[in-house]
Specification:
There is one protein chain. By secondary structure, the protein is of the alpha+beta class. It is about 15% helix and about 40% strand. It contains four helices and six strands. Strand 2 and strand 3 form a beta hairpin. It starts with 17 loop residues before the first helix and ends in a 10-residue tail after the last strand.
Length: about 120
């Protein structure tokens, strides 16, 4: 059972260009240096291609005793010629991989196991 949330956000009044947004997105592994609630961020894998357009990240965000750890795939698709935009897709690996208490191999990438703590859902 797959649940997906999609959104489209048009940013006509944002005083930055596509290059600045793409450079920020391409530095997810360094999010702990520019996002105040990010505790850890790492790039687990870059899928082969001419450009690093499909990558898997592990991120932990939190405040005080509350934290969320997740793994997600980010794929960037250049649709400038066709639609005048760049699409960014972010999604998690399958549920069985995400809910495993041990590290799992998914598409040739070792995805960390679910953290063990007081509350896991």
């Amino acid at each position: 059972n797959s649940h997906r949330t999609t959104f489209c956000y048009d940013m006509p009044d944002v005083p930055v260009g596509a290059i600045e947004v793409l450079s920020l997105i391409s530095e997810v592994q360094d999010a702990k240096t520019w996002f105040p609630f990010c505790r850890k961020s790492s790039e687990l894998h870059v899928f082969p291609g001419r450009l690093p357009l499909v990558r898997i990240f592990a991120v932990e965000v939190g405040v005080k005793m509350f934290s969320i750890e997740t793994v997600f795939v980010m794929a960037v698709e250049d649709q400038l010629k066709e639609k005048g935009c760049i699409s960014i897709y972010m999604f998690s690996p399958p549920e069985d991989v995400m809910c495993s208490s041990d590290a799992s191999d998914w598409m040739g990438v070792e995805v960390p196991g679910m953290p063990q703590g007081l509350l896991n859902f």
